[in-house]
Design a protein that fits this description.
Distance between the termini: 39 Å
Number of helices: 9
CATH superfamily of the largest domain: NAD(P)-binding Rossmann-like Domain
Largest sheet: 5 strands, parallel
Bound molecules: 5,10-Methenyltetrahydrofolate
Shape: globular
Helix content: 25-40%
Number of strands: 10
CATH topology of the largest domain: Rossmann fold
Strand order of the largest sheet: 5-4-6-7-10
Order of helices and strands: HEHEHEHHHEHEHEEEEEH
Radius of gyration: 18 Å
CATH architecture of the largest domain: 3-Layer(aba) Sandwich
Number of domains: 2
Structural class: alpha/beta
Strand content: 15-25%
């Protein structure tokens, strides 16, 4: 079975509509990009479509100096929100972004301030993909005490999703596995909920899961011009699987757009 995320997206859209009604101007999102890879191009297309749909002024900027451009847009009162596409090239690290982006415009929740706030369980802006993962799981089931296994320890998905899922009140039992994990399949077979955030097309097949597992496919891989996830689609025969496209990615974009409205309104 495939998990339908339409209602989860609808909830985000309702949050957007409430903020939009209170705003008297069109918010502006600046997306800074350096040599976009295929998955970034896919995201930018999705951002363009959604910005148009929700009424956001999206400016995509090819950046030669990320830190300089960040500082410029931090100060520019007409820029409400800033997104920096990964992978980063040309000598900049994720930590450079984390240190230099204004927390109030940081709609992906990557700044040290926002990451720290999440760590202390007082979330402001949090990484959109991790939030999408948590929202899909929570709309489908109660995670309290459940075994959630995450494959991948990225700053954007694996690590923040682990923090969010084990939060007091949500109370999942979280295992983070990665490329050096021994006996990976033994670990993933113990999962009630499996989050695949590896970045390799069709990496997870039926041999990784027990029947009835909830499988969240975070992968956006472009193979022969088509978007495919990290999970082989036939896993849906024995598990509840999120589709790609039309799953985590589409919710992630909606959450990013909602965060642009929050930044414009000055909620944080
Ligand atoms: N700083 C940063 N944050 C990211 O979150 C980030 C990034 N950089 N670099 C690139 C990857 C890729 N990514 C996607 C998210 C949503 C869709 C998306 O909305 N996909 C739609 C449409 C896919 C299509 O058909 O083109 C879907 O899955 O239904 C795609 C790709 C976020 N990433």
């Amino acid at each position: 079975m495939f998990i339908d995320v339409k209602d989860t997206i609808k909830n985000i859209k309702e949050e957007i509509d409430i903020i939009k009604n209170e705003l008297t101007f069109e918010p502006k999102l600046v997306s800074l990009v350096v040599e976009p890879d295929k998955s970034t191009l896919s995201y930018l297309n999705s951002q363009k479509r959604s910005a148009k749909k929700y009424g956001i002024n999206l400016e995509i900027v090819e950046s030669n100096n990320l830190v300089e451009d960040l500082q410029k847009h931090n100060e520019d009162r007409n820029t409400h929100a800033i997104f920096v596409a990964r992978p980063l090239k040309k000598g900049f690290t994720e930590l450079d972004i984390a240190k230099n982006i204004s927390p109030f415009k940081d709609v992906e929740g990557v700044s040290l301030y926002n990451i720290g706030s999440m760590f202390y369980e007082k979330e402001l802006f949090i990484p959109c993909t991790a939030e999408a993962v948590v929202k899909i799981i929570e709309d489908f089931t109660d995670v309290k005490g459940k075994n959630v296994v995450i494959i991948g320890r990225s700053t954007t998905v694996g690590k923040p999703a682990a923090i969010l899922l084990q939060k007091h009140g949500r109370d999942a039992t979280v295992t983070v596995s990665h490329s050096k994990t021994e006996n990976l399949k033994e670990v993933t077979k113990r999962a009630d909920i499996l989050v695949a955030a590896i970045g390799r097309a069709n990496f997870v097949d039926k041999s990784f899961v027990k029947e009835g597992t909830i499988v969240i496919d975070v992968g956006i891989n472009v193979v022969n011009g088509k978007v495919v996830g990290d999970v082989s689609q036939d896993v849906s025969e024995i598990c509840n699987l999120t589709p790609v496209p039309g799953g985590v990615g589409s919710l992630t974009t909606a959450i990013l757009m909602r965060n642009v409205f929050r930044a414009a309104k000055g909620e944080f």
